[in-house]
Amino acid sequence: MTDITMPQLGETITEGTITKWFKAVGELVGEDEVLYEVSTDKVDSEVPSPCSGTLLEIRVAEGETVDVGAVLAVIGEAEMAAPAPTLPPAPTLPPAPAPAPAPVSPPEVPRPSAAGVLLSPVVRRLLTTHGLDPSTIVGTGIGGRITRGDVLAVVDSGGQPLTTVATGASSAAEPDVPAPASDSAVGPHSGDRDQVIPHSNIRRRSAEHLRRSLDTSAHVYMATEVDFEAVDRVRRAHREEWNDAEGFSLTYLPFVTRAVVDAISEFPEVNATFTDEALIVHQYLNLGIAVDLDFKGLMVPVVRDAGSKRMRAIAREIRDLGARARSKKLTPDDISNGTFTITNPGPQGTLLTMPIINQPQVAILSTDGVKRRPVVVELPDGSESIAIHSVGNIVLSWDHRAFDGAYAASFLNQVRNLLETRDWAAEL
């Protein structure tokens, strides 16, 4: 038999919550087949089975939080499963006399940790914190158990907390107050024509992080237009060669990231963390790249030490991190310690995006859609003409506490100059 234990998903991670089992007890499991999904305070990960066999036992139900190293399940051979015990028939007893009628007492409101309801410690904690009655919550875990997600869904949808807990004293002085007509399990604005989508863990964490960022940083936005024609000429000339060698398309993003890397070397204060005492300027560049998870959330995996890497290496790493983010193969270390972030909504044809700073960083760059447009160009003889070039916007969101507008504008201008004038063919 093999014990399946909670893995160490990052240097700072000490516990995890099982959010989903992909196999039930008695089912066959293949080696490296996804067995369960675990959620930490940083990332959700699908974890493969380290061995093949039959899932004999699940010891940690969905919604339970356990420490790293705890046994989650047991895998072995099918014949190793313990048979269900055979109980002897109960003896026949004469009927008991009818009990005396119990005295009438005021109705009690069940406590959050009601007896007879099997609840994990994290679920009990949530129920107590929010004053919720477990008998009013439909469990979606194994055997109908209430999971952490079930409780949080009720909390988010406006579930009513308990207002009275029985103590043995009369509650006649506190009569029941009927709920308003608009009250329901999904909030006052729901109706038959509404769809209720409970928040996922990643949506909940993103909401908290983004709200905290707006409350923390003095956000300022600055945009500039970039002529991508020099980049586009190289893309067109090397498209097939790149696809054959790398197995994916050569987009604008690697060019932008390489320009950002070089611009940061000249304007290092955009690669920093602001504190009340000082601006901590990092002597390394861990470049975060925002990745959309099929409209279900956003992750920002990190290209570590991007300042020491050429464009091709950065492009490969961005591709790998994006694929692992979408397949839930990232670890918490893959999304930790970023120092500057790039978000790339441009493939959707956006015009001007003002992103929220990824705390505790002081700046984030957005790349918007690139389109063919008429532009004024200077001819070799010094005269001007109209040409059709690939043009798009880049936007910098920055924390005004960290530096001022002149510094931000100079950095953004340097990114633009590099994109327009660099010998990108030599870079490839």
Structure description:
- This protein has 428 residues and is α+β, with helices and mostly antiparallel strands.
- Helices cover 24% and strands 23% of the residues.
- It contains eight helices and 18 strands.
- It has helices at 121-130, 148-156, 201-216, 229-246, 253-266, 311-326, 405-421, 424-427, and strands at residues 2-5, 15-21, 28-29, 34-39, 44-48, 53-58, 65-67, 71-76, 219-227, 272-274, 279-281, 287-289, 291-292, 298-299, 302-303, 340-343, 363-378, 384-399.
- The strands form five sheets. A six-stranded mixed sheet has the order 9-18-17-16-12-15. The chain has a four-stranded antiparallel sheet with strand order 1-8-6-3, with no helix packed on it. A four-stranded antiparallel sheet has the order 5-4-2-7, with no helix packed on it.
- The two termini are 52 Å apart.
Overall body shape? elongated
Encode the helix/strand succession as letters. Answer: EEEEEEEEHHHEHHEEEEEEHEEEHH
Share in helix: 10-25%
The averaged pLDDT comes out at 84
What is the total tally of β strands?
18
Oligomer class: single chain
- Can you list the strand order of the major beta sheet? 9-18-17-16-12-15
Strand content: 15-25%
Radius of gyration, whole Å:
29 Å
Number of discrete helical segments: 8
Structural class: alpha+beta
Gap between N and C termini, in Å?
Answer: 52 Å
Low-confidence blocks of residues: 104-112, 162-185
What can be said about the biggest beta sheet? 6 strands, mixed
